[in-house]
Design brief:
Strand order of the largest sheet: 8-21-20-19-9-16-18-17
Number of helices: 32
CATH class of one domain: Alpha Beta
CATH topology of one domain: Rossmann fold
Mean pLDDT: 81
Shape: elongated
Strand content: 15-25%
Number of strands: 21
Radius of gyration: 35 Å
Length: about 850
């Protein structure tokens, strides 16, 4: 490390520890809050201060002002229960993820008292000298000092992907990344004054993309908000004309607003939080909350063999001398590996196998994944000339025309070995042109061919099988020789017809040819970062949902273009900074479980959406139907809240926890058409019919204690009450009993939908595929027993504003439910709604 300092920055000493401490006390420290997840305040704010919640809170305040404390408690209480559960779950997830995220936090390499120190970014102070090497993030704004030269990726700040060269005196900005070279820079702006902290958008904000599920839910909510607004206007006008009391107005408003399934957003947050915690336990840190669910959409996974198929550990294997003795070739390679300013895994493997003495360098071109070579110029007595190490096909045009490279290159590449060519030019020539761009001298002499072996990951074969079983196509994109990559892929277990293509071949293609090559080929070798980016764009243009795995700074561009970016923990700070998911301990095997977790979330959320939408739909249809027929308002806020809690609130929490991975079901429109429309329409029809029959029969005296006008006259005589009051009381009793019968029918019908959405046996299938899971059915039975207990206990019955039910009402409810359930099952199995609406012709 110290040698690198001497070469990069003319051995600056940096600040002393005492001076750094003094500056920190004077407020010149890099006091920034590096958020790894949402803050506690944001979690509470986003759970509490939603539009629908605020409306319900306002209605609750009105109900309290009118003395309707029970209505207010139940209307707002369910909302608060959702809020509390959501906050608790998300806070638990935040604490877990924050602890893990500390592992991937960028670090600062700082010079203090002439020694390198690895510090947390918050410990940097104004005037500190920081070192930066390939893949490092620039932590604070500063100015390059010394003789170092670097190429910087500023795309996160500017949106431009071109690399910006930086030398002494040039400014560098926080939030950017070093791609090539190494240098020292002095911190000139820290904390809130730095560019990255003054910009509203950073790397992760740049990548925030809504998933199909989030778009579906947003569409549903907007649709139902429009419906509720329409209902609110119509009922408001009707109540204004009829002169309805403020008490009844507030109750009706609470029920109408409650139709909006605001719990859907809550359930998505819960599902994402639970999924993130589960994945953290399996070795994957979720940096974007929706990344796990988004994984379920992936059908193409792009990856480099390094760090995925292989363990990112390479070893020197063998060399083949050309035009020089083997001992001399070993000496030259050892000196070359010891003298580079910024080593990579190749130079480290060389240095470990061929120890050499560090020599003074007159010029240097560090290795670049775009160039695929590195070069050093020496001008000492025992070592003079330009030496270049790189990919054979990249150096071949600069080698003497009659040079014989032998057949080792192809033999070793076909055997899965990484192959490099070492060349030499006796004269010391400049390695940069007049514009500072790297250049190679012509007519170089080949000195030898060097091979390296990659260590395959032991779990690679099992992991690849997991991708195939999930229906995910693999695209292996590498900077190495395509034949080397293909051989390693076969050793790792990749089977079938493997089409191989190289970067130079891609360069000769137009956009359409490149898109077809991206679709057809499996192995891509000698690919530059820009070509990786184009391949990802081409795959997306053909309708694929693309995930990209990367570990080096050369992968940043393609990671940002993919739907999902995945980085290795040991990878560069740049890749970790833009990734949606970071694989802890570089565990490639954590990905198949992540795909299954995404499928589990989507499977559970589709069931949850069906229950929410069914309840919202039949409630809206009954409200509209009762208004059209001219009956009393069919619900009270207490009844609506009780239905929401027992048929949707508790079951959906359980469904989120019990969901199992499954292939993605039909899209939103067909899912609604098949399950929700028949369920909501038929339950609303049966419920409205029973409600209407009871209400009318009770009012005209066909059933009930008051069976005729003569009975009312008798009551008037007995109690001395005017007949108008007796009739009003009879109307209230009729409305109370009718509402209770309707609420009970919807309660048991809603719980039956829980069984239908996760059918434990074939008898209940039709609305959804057979699941074989009895847990939702047992939960539905328990919740039905809870509601029955409420009906049987007088105190609870009065609290929930329910009337006592006799055997006649129980029989009517039971018979209606049986008839409805059999009819609904018939409609589902015959697909009557789909055939009538021709939903199969619609996409999604």
């Amino acid at each position: 490390m110290q040698a690198a300092i001497e070469n990069v920055a003319d051995a600056p000493r940096g600040l002393s520890e005492n001076e750094a401490a003094r500056r920190r006390q004077n407020g010149q420290g890099n006091d920034v809050r590096l958020e790894t997840s949402r803050s506690y305040g944001r979690i509470i704010r986003e759970n509490v201060l939603t539009f629908i919640n605020l409306v319900l809170f306002g209605i609750g305040a009105v109900l309290v002002a009118l003395g309707l404390y029970t209505d207010a408690l139940l209307s707002v209480g369910i909302v608060m229960l959702n809020v509390v559960i959501g906050v608790v779950q998300e806070v638990r997830a935040k604490r877990t993820l924050d602890r893990i995220a500390l592992l991937t936090r960028p670090k600062a390499t700082v010079l203090r008292d002439g020694q390198e120190k690895i510090l947390d970014p918050t410990e940097v102070v104004l005037g500190d000298t920081l070192l930066v090497r390939p893949g490092d993030q620039i932590i604070v704004d500063g100015t390059v000092t010394g003789a170092g030269r670097i190429d910087v990726d500023e795309s996160l700040l500017t949106g431009e992907s071109d690399l910006i060269p930086k030398a002494a005196g040039d400014p560098v900005y926080s939030g950017t990344f070093c791609v090539n070279g190494s240098a020292a820079y002095e911190a000139t702006r820290v904390g809130a004054e730095s560019v990255a902290n003054r910009l509203a958008a950073g790397a992760r904000a740049f990548r925030q993309v809504k998933t199909p599920l989030q778009r579906d839910v947003e569409f549903i909510i907007r649709l139902l908000v429009l419906l509720v607004v329409q209902l609110g206007i119509l009922f408001g006008m009707g109540m204004l004309i009829a002169g309805t009391s403020a008490r009844d107005n507030a109750r009706i408003a609470a029920v109408i607003v409650g139709i909006i399934p605001n719990g859907l957003f809550f359930m998505i947050s819960i599902a994402y939080a639970m999924g993130a915690v589960r994945m953290a336990g399996r070795g994957a840190l979720i940096q974007q909350s929706n990344a796990v669910e988004s994984m379920s959409n992936v059908n193409v996974l792009c990856l480099d063999k390094t760090g995925t198929l292989t363990a990112n550990r390479i070893h020197f294997f063998q060399l083949d001398p050309l035009n020089v003795e083997e001992a001399e070739l070993r000496r030259l390679l050892g000196a070359f590996a010891a003298s580079v300013s910024a080593g990579n895994r190749t130079s480290e493997a060389l240095a470990a196998a061929l120890p050499g003495q560090r020599r003074p360098v007159t010029d240097e071109v560090p290795f670049s994944s775009a160039r695929k070579w590195s070069a050093l110029a020496f001008d000492s007595d025992d070592l003079r000339g330009v030496y270049v190490l790189g990919a054979p096909e990249m150096l071949r045009p600069f080698v003497r025309e009659n040079a014989d490279l032998g057949d080792k290159i192809h033999q070793w590449a076909d055997g899965g070995l990484r192959v490099l060519l070492f060349t030499y030019r006796p004269e010391v020539t400049p390695l940069h042109d007049s514009l500072g761009q790297p250049q190679l001298p012509p007519e170089m002499i080949p000195l030898g061919i060097i091979s390296f072996s990659d260590e395959l990951r032991p779990e690679a074969d099992k992991t690849l099988r997991g991708f195939f079983e999930a229906g995910i196509r693999l695209k292996i994109i590498s900077g190495d020789n395509p034949h080397t990559v293909a051989a390693l892929a076969r050793q790792a277990g990749l089977s079938g017809d493997i089409r191989v293509i190289s970067g130079p071949e891609l360069d000769a293609m137009d956009a359409m040819e490149l898109a077809k090559a991206a679709e057809d080929a499996t192995i891509f070798g000698r690919i530059t970062p820009q070509q990786k980016e184009k391949l990802v764009e081409a795959l997306r243009s053909r309708g694929h949902y693309v995930a990209m795995i990367g570990d080096g700074v050369n992968d940043v561009l393609s990671l940002k273009k993919a739907h999902i970016g995945i980085a290795m923990q040991s990878g560069s700070q740049a890749t970790r900074g833009v990734a949606d998911i970071v694989l802890l301990n570089d565990s490639f095997a954590a990905l198949p479980p992540a795909f299954r977790e995404g499928q589990r979330i989507v499977s559970g959320m589709q069931d949850i959406m069906r229950l929410f939408l069914a309840r919202a739909s039949y409630m809206a249809l009954i409200v509209i139907g009762a208004a059209v027929i001219g009956l009393g308002f069919p619900f009270t806020p207490i009844h609506s809240s009780l239905l929401s809690l027992l048929t949707v609130g508790i079951p959906t929490l359980a469904l989120a926890a019990w969901a199992r991975p499954a292939q993605r079901k039909a899209g939103l429109i067909r899912s609604v058409g098949h399950f929700v429309l028949p369920a909501a329409a038929t339950l609303a029809l049966f419920g409205l019919s029973v409600y209407m029959l009871y209400y009318v029969a009770l009012l005209n005296g066909s059933i009930g204690p008051v069976s005729s006008t003569q009975d009312m006259i008798a009551l008037e005589t007995l109690h001395g009450l005017p007949i108008s009051e007796i009739f009003a009381q009879a109307e209230q009793d009729a409305l109370a009993l009718s509402r209770t019968v309707l609420t009970s029918l919807l309660m048991f019908g809603g719980l039956l939908l829980v069984v239908f959405v996760e059918p434990p046996v074939h008898f209940f299938s039709g609305g959804d595929d057979l699941s074989g899971d009895w847990k939702p059915t047992i939960l539905a039975v328990l919740l039905a027993a809870v509601y029955a207990g409420i009906l049987l206990v007088p105190g609870l019955r009065r609290f929930f504003d329910l009337a006592p039910l006799g055997l006649r009402e129980v029989g009517v409810i039971g018979a209606t439910l049986l008839l409805w359930a059999f009819l609904l099952r018939l409609i589902w199995r015959a697909r009557l709604f789909e055939r009538f609406l021709r939903l199969d012709e619609l996409r999604g």
